[in-house]
Description:
The chain is an alpha/beta fold. The chain has 5 domains: 127 residues, 3-Layer(aba) Sandwich (Rossmann fold); 47 residues; 97 residues; 156 residues, Gcn5-related N-acetyltransferase (GNAT) (Aminopeptidase), CATH 3.40.630.30; 122 residues, no CATH class. It has 26 helices and 15 strands. The strands form 3 sheets. Strands 8, 9, 10, 11, 12, 13, 14 and 15 form an 8-stranded mixed β-sheet that branches. Helix 14 runs antiparallel to helix 15, helix 20 crosses helix 23 and helix 24 crosses helix 26. The termini are far apart.
Amino acid sequence: MPRFHLLYVHGPGGCGKTALLRCFRDLAEGAGLRAAFLGGADIVPEPERFAAAVQARFAEGEAARGRADTEPRRLLLIDAYERLRPNLDEWLREAFLPQLPETAVVVIADRRPPGLAWRRDPGWQGALTSLRLDNLSEADGRAYLRRRQIPPAREEEILSFALGHPLALALAADAVLQAPEVPFRPERAPEVVGSLLREMVERVSLPEQRQALEAAALVRHLDEPLLSALVERPDARDLFEWLGTLSVVQVGRHGLRLHETVQALLCAESRWRNGPRHAELVARAREHYTRRLRAAEGEDQQRLLADYLFLHRDGPAGRPYQAITAPGVAGLVVRRAEGPEAAVLQQWIARHEGPESAGLAAAWMQAQPTGVLALVDASGCLHGGAVLVDPATSPPGPPDPCLAVVPVGSGPVVLVRHWLGAGGEQGVSPAQGALFVAFLQHYLAVPDLRFSVIVCRDAAFWEPLMRGGGFQPVRDGRFALAGRTYGVFARDWQSLSPLAWLQLLGSEMRFAALAARPSAEPTPSAGPQGAGLDGEAFASAVRHALRHVREPDVLAGNPLLTVPAAVGGLPPQAPEPARIHALQEILRAAVEGLASSPRRAKLHRALLATYWGTASTQEEVAEALDVPFSTYRGHLKAGIELVVEALRRQAAAPGGLLPGGDPAETRYAKGSASAGAPGVPDPR
């Protein structure tokens, strides 16, 4: 007797269900068993037709062997059951399958797991086994690629694209074998992406459904308000409910989530198919999260921050947070540690960093207990923790050598002195990702935060990731303790607050990718810090900035970025994305300022429609404003001159720091604010 009568195999399209059923059929036939394979796409979903098809498949097997089959054991394999389920599920469960002989085994392949009726039916509870097929492990995926004789140089490219999905691995391997010397990139292989999406996602018949899928692919969790914001519909309930019916969508506590491989593929397709639209969706999501973050607190704020950072998972600032998307991490939260948890954290520190480090950690924990954080799951199990302190108030006892290199300034400083995952590890992991989100939440809560500083055991490993998030290695900032060397990274928030950094995160990613790309058109030139940018050069720079006010990659070459007064007082060494954003805001404010005067309202309308409108030509702008073209041109010219003069006056105002001025530089000190020695971070 078989251990089960029904094996219910389920998983997303392309995960190998059909291949597994065919393997079962071949094994059964090799053992002399009677096997019948039925594809759900090839059968009319009616009871009589289905029963006739089963009988016909078994008869075909007997005919192929040229004899009547007396073997009592049978194997019935039903593929693509999702196509039959709506019409046949109840009949198959209650009528057809129970009348099969006890020696028969049935294997069903479905995109969704067995329904509640299967699991509640007493007759099936002991006879049904459910098997979920998911992605291959990295080791299995690598073994498959080596069997396909994929060049080692291409393995990592395919593995990072396929994420273990069997069909994705197979199709990408096929593409690479056609040109083994060419690096594999999804955007260069649209046929691979298209084939996968056709296999993994049910047919999408409406444009609104396609938009909803693109929205779901962008975010970590999708709830109804977020979907409404992304598709710009006040009521998106019908689309939200439709998404919930897809086999590649998981329904969870915080909303819907696409299967990770489908998500990666849809994002890849969205980028190469319509890059500007993809960027617009990111901007809408960013605006939605920012609005909700302001009102959230506690665990809700942690989750929203994780969702926000997930938007930017492919850029350098997002990489340290990527692990928060791993399966099983959704239930991890960071809260203030309790006594026993703090004791366990000290034990982990002692084991991995030595008793001296554990002693310093215990002193910090006792002096500033509110900064001891515990990372726990829903059952309260400890997965990691951290010690966040104010370095200005050090505990009694032996001095912490870390303090000799921590930057200090005129405002609050948050020092992440210790952080570790379960058992003491400090690598990229779900625990690390969740802890980093909690650090960011803490930065947001500190008014007028000046510096955030973090200590890392493996400075060489963490430096690229820290730099991606704006944390610079502190000059001469490595210190030794009990034979171990630690690195210190710091971020100065004076010119860009944590919330402003979040809002600019997408731009920062984009600039990392565009850093080596030349501007599409020549931009006005200027010497260091805008030297010589006066008269016509200044006016030319303002006109150029207006023409490209919505093109950050072009604005990157504008010399106004070196004029502090034109970028909200930010010094030239401030992050470029921050200065670009400030210049865009100042230009918009100068234009909006014209609206306060009735005589200049027409100039305001001309500028707004030209540089922030949707028309592609000036003739279309004039038509939209319902004025003669010559009149529009006159309004536009006069408006530009007023904006130039407004920015010129702002640059010349006391304290405005004219081009070539000496903006105040951030000061660091070793040990204390009174030490006066120039310190860190090295902005290399």
